[in-house]
Design a protein that fits this description.
Radius of gyration: 19 Å
Number of strands: 4
Largest sheet: 2 strands, antiparallel
Structural class: mainly alpha
């Protein structure tokens, strides 16, 4: 299987943007009131599928050197991709490899949330737990991503687009984690710990992921330009 590196990067970016937009839209109360709970749940489920597709594309990108080590010419040249890899010493690969199962947990939780009349215990088991596991994996993935672009975790590199992307995703992961914790359904009250925080965390996290994904496009162009400059006589 061969893919154009530039096309793969753009596809991953757009898949993440669409998935993030679905989560952001689904968490807006006005949208929920307008279309109802069932369609709102479908919006989350569809968004999670976009996340999973994008995450796998990013994993393929991370484990295929030909997809990232490119210049103005080779970025448009089809190259074979590695659909499976094991590169535990590469932090970029670790970030992608940890993120992918996290998106699968979001698939499980969003699809399970479509079940009506679930008890508090059922909701916590089939919706909240996968959501929490996915959020934990997103946090770990974001930490690997930050370390992949920085020598130190809290190194500040505001001019670096990869650094900005990594930290937008880190903040988004923190907000998703806050949303997951707040979404725990207390059996005695049959209500979430904080519905307001759950909604706000999801919306804020989705917006952060959306911005981070959008920055992948100019980051790619800047990296290609740098490669051209570096190889110029």
């Amino acid at each position: 299987m061969t893919v154009r590196p530039q096309r793969l990067n753009a596809t991953v970016a757009w898949l993440f943007m669409v998935g993030s937009a679905c989560f952001a839209m689904g968490s807006v109360p006005a949208y929920l009131n307008a279309i109802g709970g069932w369609v709102d749940g479908i919006t989350y489920a569809v968004g999670s599928l976009f996340f999973t597709s994008a995450s796998y594309g990013q994993l393929v990108q991370a484990q295929t050197p030909a997809m990232t080590a490119v210049d103005a010419v080779t970025q448009h040249r089809p190259a074979p991709v590695r659909l499976w890899g094991w590169i535990p010493h590469d932090r970029s690969w670790l970030a992608a490899a940890v993120q992918f199962p996290g998106t699968v947990f979001f698939n499980i939780s969003t699809i399970a949330a479509l079940t009506h009349n679930a008890t508090a215990a059922e909701s916590d088991r089939y919706v909240w737990r996968p959501d929490l596991y996915g959020s934990v994996l997103f946090l770990v993935s974001s930490a690997f991503a930050v370390l992949a672009v920085s020598h130190r975790f809290f190194a500040v590199q505001p001019r670096s687009l990869p650094w900005r992307i990594a930290w937008f995703n880190m903040v988004g992961s923190v907000l998703f984690m806050a949303s997951a914790i707040a979404g725990y359904v207390v059996p005695s009250a049959d209500a979430m710990l904080s519905a307001r925080l759950a909604v706000a965390g999801t919306f804020g996290g989705a917006v952060c992921f959306l911005v981070g994904a959008a920055l992948m496009l100019p980051a790619w162009r800047r990296a290609v330009t740098s490669a051209v400059v570096a190889t110029s006589p």
